[in-house]
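User: Predict structure, ligand magnesium ion.
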Amino acid sequence: MIYLKTDEEIELMRAANQLVGKTLAEIAKHIVPGVNTLQLDKIAEEFIRDNGAVPAFLGYNGFPNTITTSVNEQVVHSIPSAKVILKEGDIVSVDCGTILNGFVGDSAYTFCVGEVNADTKALLKATKESLYEGIRHAIEGRRLGDISYAVQTYCESRGYSVVRELVGHGIGRKMHEEPEVPNYGRPGCGPLLRNGMCICIEPMINRGSKNVVFERDGWTVRTKDRKCSAHYEHCIAIRPEGPQILSSFEFLEEVLGNNAI
Ligand code: MG
Ligand code: MG
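Assistant: Predicted complex:
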């Protein structure tokens, strides 16, 4: 069942998602060579709680932390650790969720650690652009497959591949609601996009093949060929006047300045 949100509920969704955006900005300040991913997790948890919210990932299906921190060939869901020390040239995908006033926010961004090579930067840029390409097709009266197809064709036409095993999702009082939002699909197919639908669009795009491996820690997903992978996620609402982005990269991009992708 797809829950359509009222205007009031969408404003609550926006508040939860804006807090995720601000949390990602706090994290952005500390992404430098030498920091470990558990330090980033602690910063995120403290910031979320200081703002009167609860980390949405902590305890979700038993997940032990506030954020996921997936480095280089890791696609998503990696557990923060004091042993994972970021180094110059790495990329790290940070996914973060909050629960505020009963509603969930969920957004992700792939950061560069210091100076990153041009090929990797190109992957990040294309993945982020594919997210906005998907959002552009999130129009009331059209079909969910239009979003999926837009993301897929944008990435594949540039030589990148789309992870199949993981998808975006509806969101609201729960982090994962119907419908699933794949990053691949056929235009004109899938659920009708209706006013009040809130969904997370989150391209997970690989430099090499689309194949992934689920690591034995029970969480980490990495590319099979160990080439790098990028992940950007926005939470959006379908509205009569067009798609509304409820999350925000503006806060973190202000921190990154000219280094933003
Ligand atoms: Mg997420
Ligand atoms: Mg999500």
